[in-house]
Write a sequence for this structure.
């Protein structure tokens, strides 16, 4: 097939290709870009087209592959296109960088509060916090199961009281300031 015949056939199928591009992209501007890219690649690689085969299907395959590659690229880059006025919000990253400073301070405060616990309460509580089951704690500390449960309960109650007292005092201090 000569270059002139190829161009005429490409022009003949242009209405079909534009409609197919619009069907894929659902946007007029993106459809025009997709059509232009398809026409460019078809002209660039016209030597790879085998005469006697279906040119319309060959062009549609080129278009579909370009669309799929562009879609995958945009997904990888995390770019979303939107025509709205607040489009700048769409390109913002989905992840939020967390500041672990507050969590670290809270853990330090909890560690101090746990250290203030009576040894009889602290050991079962720490073992429970580390993931031991009540029965395992009872076996390791050679205590009855009910005693382990009650000591963990009292440890929690004591910690809750310490934390409540600390933050009530902080709130009162902030109100006075």
């Amino acid at each position: 097939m000569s270059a002139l015949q190829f161009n005429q056939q490409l022009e003949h199928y242009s209405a079909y290709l534009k409609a197919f591009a619009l069907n894929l992209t659902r946007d007029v501007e993106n459809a025009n870009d997709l059509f232009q890219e398809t026409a460019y690649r078809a002209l660039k690689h016209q030597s790879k087209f085998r005469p006697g085969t279906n040119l319309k299907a060959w062009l549609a395959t080129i278009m579909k592959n370009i669309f799929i590659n562009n879609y995958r690229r945009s997904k990888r880059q995390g770019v979303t296109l939107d025509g709205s006025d607040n489009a700048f919000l769409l390109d913002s990253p989905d992840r939020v960088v967390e500041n672990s400073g507050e969590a670290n301070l809270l853990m330090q405060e909890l560690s101090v509060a746990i250290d203030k616990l009576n040894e009889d309460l602290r050991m079962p509580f720490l073992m429970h916090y580390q993931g031991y089951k009540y029965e395992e704690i009872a076996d390791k500390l050679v205590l009855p199961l009910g005693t382990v449960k009650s000591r963990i309960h009292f440890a929690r109650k004591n910690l809750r009281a310490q934390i409540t007292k600390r933050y009530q005092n902080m709130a009162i201090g902030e109100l006075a300031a």
Observations:
- The chain has two domains: 3-80, 102-176.
